[in-house]
Amino acid sequence: MNDLTAEWIAKAEGDYATAGRELRARRRPNYDAVCFHAQQAVEKYLKAFLQENGADFPKTHSLIELLQLVVPLDAGFEWQRDLLIRLERYAVRYRYPGESADLDEARSAFKAAQAVRRFIRQRLAPKE
């Protein structure tokens, strides 16, 4: 694994851990942050996969745009499309006044991120 890929993964893991901590918080949990960091973790994992495979990618928060770049490298990613569509809206949806996530939505976002994270980590694992 190259150094930049490892850095993308470290950043992704930071977002994933933050989402998990906020989801488990007993006092004043921030469900908006769970959703945002779940999306961010997956975005960075997609970028890690692209980086590891030598693919160029734009500065974007669109998971679907990244998916379109990933699928030619590994068609198996197509199975993640529904989860990515669900997560994509969290890049900005709860970042501003007017809407807030609830516990159920936060759980759903984290579960989706967990599934995509597992999928991508398997693909980034060293081949023996």
Q: Describe it for me?
A:
The protein has 128 residues and is an all-alpha fold. It has one domain: Up-down Bundle (Four Helix Bundle (Hemerythrin (Met), subunit A)). The protein contains five helices and no strands. It has helices at 3-24, 31-52, 63-70, 81-88, 103-124.
Topology, element by element:
Blueprint lengths: L2 H22 L6 H22 L10 H8 L10 H8 L14 H22 L4
Helix pairs in contact: 1-2, 1-5, 2-3, 2-5, 4-5
Please report the total strand number as a whole number: 0
Our Rg estimate from Cα atoms comes to 14 Å
Number of domains: 1
Top CATH class: Mainly Alpha
The helix fraction, in percent, is 55-70%
Order of helices and strands: HHHHH
Q: Note the gap between the termini.
A: 13 Å
Number of H- or I-type helical stretches: 5
CATH topology: the name is Four Helix Bundle (Hemerythrin (Met), subunit A)
Instruction: Decide which structural class fits the backbone.
Output: mainly alpha
In CATH, the homologous superfamily goes by the name Nucleotidyltransferases  domain 2
Question: Which descriptor suits the 3D outline?
Answer: globular
Contiguous low-pLDDT stretches (5 residues minimum) are none
What's the CATH architecture?
Up-down Bundle
The major sheet is characterized as: none
**Proportion of residues in extended strands:** under 5%
Mean pLDDT: 92
